[in-house]
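User: Good morning. I'm curious how coproporphyrinogen III would be positioned relative to this chain. Could you predict the structure with it bound?
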Amino acid sequence: MTHCFIRALLRQPVERTPVWMMRQAGRYLPEYREVRERAGSFMNLCTSPELACEVTLQPLERYRLDAAILFSDILTVPDAMGLGLEFVEGEGPRFRNPIRGATDIHRLGVPDPEAELAYVPAAVRLIKQHLGDRAPLIGFSGSPWTLATYMVEGGSSREFRKIKCLMYEEPALMHELLEKLADAVALYLNAQIAAGVDAVMVFDTWGGNLDAEHYLTFSLRYAERVLQQLRLTARGRIPAIFFTKGGGQWLEAMADAGYDALGLDWTTDIGSARQRVGDRVALQGNLDPVALYARPEVIRGEVRKILERYGTGSGHVFNLGHGVTPDIKPEHVGAMIDAVHEFSPAFHRI
Ligand code: CP3
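Assistant: Good morning! Here's the predicted structure, ligand included:
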């Protein structure tokens, strides 16, 4: 029997709502911090298939999760394009060689995932061996737009002044960069699919910072281009999820892009989102990650409300509306997951 996570993405009947959590392998887990310490740096952790495999499986040992997600980072792709990724303590990601102008964009190559990024498919193969059929494995990438923001800003940004100026003043150059990124992302996801992932997710963390017109042209169009290039397996295309943080206003357009499921952040009511997208896509989300600071009884109540808002029938994958924060108590995560297991079967008995 196909796992309920995959069936929910395809809107096929399930006996309960599947649940996983963005950033489920991370610093809120003491066992993650232990391996992270041993690795020395975050990039050492990402580039060692053995360590990446170990931390990918950690949250599944602790909780009743319905999917594992490959332990890696979206910024490995620009790193392989020669930008030189560093993680500065307390500051986040930074590139040694950010994109400064036209020449940098013309010069960018599309990396071969089996060469510069070989540690990623190697980690996927190892994780699949250890995971067996306990749960499906999700592969992922950043969206072309979100990767471009980091590459042009040189790191995290509040205003996105550099990338937006490039987009407003030099749209042709912006398109050239996004085309290369769409090809790089598709090749990268295809290498993960060939190595055995069961579903893929494209993270568009910064698409929600655009106005409606530019969102469609510079973010959504390139996410669509990625999807069109995904390779087919013996069973056809594997399920694909698209998540634009802050994209709640554009769900109808997103549902037309062809992805099987859309991720929702916590600012959109999942019940109205379901009405708007109809039977075109499944929905994944959308508990506010900050709700996990509240007492377990409160967390359980919030989980129940989301299940009620979505209503009966398949097509819902329970998740947070964004990644879990590093100082959440592991028991609070457990309360959320247990509540989904306890309350959700009632929404699938017809
Ligand atoms: O979800 C998972 O468990 C899989 C692993 C995963 C990580 N990053 C591990 C990570 C995934 C899916 C990502 C995606 C990612 N990375 C996104 C898109 C999703 C989102 O959160 O919006 C973005 C924007 C990034 C870029 C990035 N990487 C940032 C902004 C940071 C935070 C820097 C910091 O120090 O807080 C990272 C680092 C990172 N990626 C960590 C983890 C567990 C923490 C680093 C550490 O352990 O030291």
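The chain has a mean pLDDT of 97. Residues 4-347 form a domain with the TIM Barrel fold (CATH 3.20.20.210).
Let me know if you'd like a different ligand tried.
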